[in-house]
């Protein structure tokens, strides 16, 4: 009986897992992901609006397109005066100015009572004119009244 008990004890399997190969695989995968992650910039650059935004500091005078409450378009190029324009004139003038000054900022200011579709149409016209970036103008929010 002692003989069969010894055989059983010798043939008992180990219940340990050898983790060394798993650690090697994990380290190889970690290195692969660390190398390839910076190469995967597939996003789209979007500049989202921020609250309490500071004023833009530019050396160049911006091109400003204004949309009044009736949907009429007005153009201000640099330090010139604001002039009413139609869609075709807007595209032609902005296109000529942007070709001469490719880094000039282009801004749209729309009355808060005008339909958003009209402002969007003005943005499409500026895109057709070749403006690389178009920013939206706004007034800063007034500080809340402090009651005593």
Short description:
With 148 residues, this protein is an alpha/beta fold.
Characteristics of this structure?
148 residues, alpha/beta, Nucleotidyltransferase, domain 5, 4 helices
Describe it for me?
- InterPro entries: ExbD, Tol-Pal_TolR.
- The Tol-Pal system is composed of five core proteins: the inner membrane proteins TolA, TolQ and TolR, the periplasmic protein TolB and the outer membrane protein Pal. They form a network linking the inner and outer membranes and the peptidoglycan layer.
- This is Tol-Pal system protein TolR.
- The protein is of the alpha/beta class.
- The chain has a domain at 67-136: Nucleotidyltransferase, domain 5 (2-Layer Sandwich), CATH 3.30.420.270.
- The protein is 36% helix and 14% strand.
- It is built from four helices and five strands, in the order H-H-E-E-E-H-E-H-E.
- A five-stranded mixed beta sheet has the order 3-2-1-4-5.
- Strand 2 and strand 3 form a beta hairpin.
- Helix 3 packs across helix 4.
- The radius of gyration is 33 Å and the shape is elongated.
């Amino acid at each position: 009986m002692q003989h069969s008990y010894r055989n059983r004890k010798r043939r008992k399997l180990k219940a340990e897992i050898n983790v060394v190969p798993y650690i090697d695989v994990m380290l190889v995968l970690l290195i692969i992901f660390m190398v390839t992650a910076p190469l995967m910039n597939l996003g789209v650059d979007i500049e989202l609006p921020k609250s309490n935004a500071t004023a833009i500091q530019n050396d160049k005078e911006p091109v400003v397109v204004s949309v009044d409450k009736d949907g009429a378009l007005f153009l201000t190029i640099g330090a010139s005066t604001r002039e009413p324009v139609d869609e075709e004139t807007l595209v032609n003038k902005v296109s000529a100015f942007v070709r001469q000054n490719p880094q000039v900022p282009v801004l749209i200011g729309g009355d808060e009572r005008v339909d958003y579709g009209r402002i969007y149409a003005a943005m499409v016209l500026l895109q057709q004119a070749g403006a690389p970036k178009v920013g939206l103008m706004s007034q800063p929010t007034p500080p809340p009244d402090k009651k005593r």
